[in-house]
């Protein structure tokens, strides 16, 4: 497997943004390595009752969790949106033969009716938004959610991985911390993937796995 090389001057945030816009294969390599035992999606299944509900995933990316939402959580209807065409194309390919409606859309302007969704799910999306964009996105989520609807998200605990304080101030509550790992096919792919996304040497890689924490958060519809 050959991954594209990052710019030597790229920052951590730029690495993620560049991959999102130009290199879905980087996200695919990361997604394949993330939480190989499915502990995070199992925690979500135990804490949130998605069965028989309509669910919207915002920022679905390469579809790393989209297929799992369809397979394991029993949603009656599932929409998945992303504003990046390359990512949405990748997600569609990952979810062939699954009953999912994909939407090319910005989460601040969703092509859905008022009060039409029971649950919203997002992974590593909201914590990366600037304050104004976060509030615009949450207002749009509240618009499409039915009364007593909920937003469930995966985020990271470390401050440099997202604005956790802003999420808490916006009504999110910590539900569970999942201790898992990133497990790559080999050390070379681990280094190439993580160096591209986070900057060279940002994470110490020894062998094919790296400890990984996933924070499960919930917010009720306002």
**β-sheet strand percentage:** 25-35%
Q: Poorly predicted ranges (pLDDT <50, ≥5 residues)?
A: 1-13
Distance between the termini: 46 Å
Rg calc: 17 Å
> How would you describe the shape?
globular
Structural class comes to alpha/beta
The biggest sheet, with number of strands, parallel, antiparallel or mixed sense and barrel status, is: 7 strands, mixed
Q: What's the name of the CATH homologous superfamily?
A: Vaccinia Virus protein VP39
- Determine the number of helices (DSSP H or I, runs of at least 4 residues): 8
How many domain units? 1
What percent of residues adopt helix (DSSP H or I)?
A: 25-40%
Q: Give the averaged pLDDT, no decimals.
A: 87
CATH architecture assignment name: 3-Layer(aba) Sandwich
Structure description:
The protein has helices at 12-22, 24-33, 39-47, 66-72, 85-94, 131-144, 164-169, 187-198; strands spanning 54-58, 77-82, 101-104, 117-123, 145-155, 173-183, 209-220. By secondary structure, the protein is α/β, with parallel strands linked by helices. The longest helix has 14 residues, at 131-144. Helix content is 36%, strand content 25%. A seven-stranded mixed beta sheet has the order 3-2-1-4-5-7-6. The protein has one domain: Rossmann fold. The protein contains eight helices and seven strands.
Name some characteristics of this structure.
222 residues, alpha/beta, Rossmann fold, seven-stranded mixed beta sheet, 8 helices, 7 strands, 25% strand, globular, disordered N terminus
């Amino acid at each position: 497997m050959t991954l594209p090389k990052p710019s030597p001057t790229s920052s951590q945030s730029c690495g993620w943004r560049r991959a999102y816009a130009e290199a879905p294969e980087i996200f695919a390599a990361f997604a394949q390595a993330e939480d190989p035992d499915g502990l995070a999606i199992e925690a979500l299944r135990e804490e949130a009752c998605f069965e028989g509900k309509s669910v919207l995933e915002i920022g679905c990316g390469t579809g790393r969790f989209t297929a799992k939402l369809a397979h394991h959580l029993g949603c009656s209807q599932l929409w998945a949106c992303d504003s990046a065409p390359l990512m949405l194309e990748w997600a569609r390919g990952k979810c062939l033969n699954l009953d999912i409606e994909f939407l090319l859309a910005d989460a601040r302007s969703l092509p859905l009716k008022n009060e039409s969704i029971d649950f919203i799910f997002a992974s590593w999306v909201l914590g990366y938004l600037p304050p104004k964009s976060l509030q615009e996105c949450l207002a749009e989520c509240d618009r499409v959610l039915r009364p007593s609807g909920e937003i469930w998200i995966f985020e990271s605990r470390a401050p440099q991985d997202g604005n956790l304080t802003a999420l808490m101030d916006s009504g999110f509550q910590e539900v569970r911390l999942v201790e898992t790992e990133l497990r790559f096919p080999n050390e070379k792919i681990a280094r190439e993937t993580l160096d591209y996304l986070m900057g060279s040497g940002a994470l110490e890689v020894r062998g094919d796995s790296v400890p990984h924490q996933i924070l499960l958060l919930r917010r009720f519809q306002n």
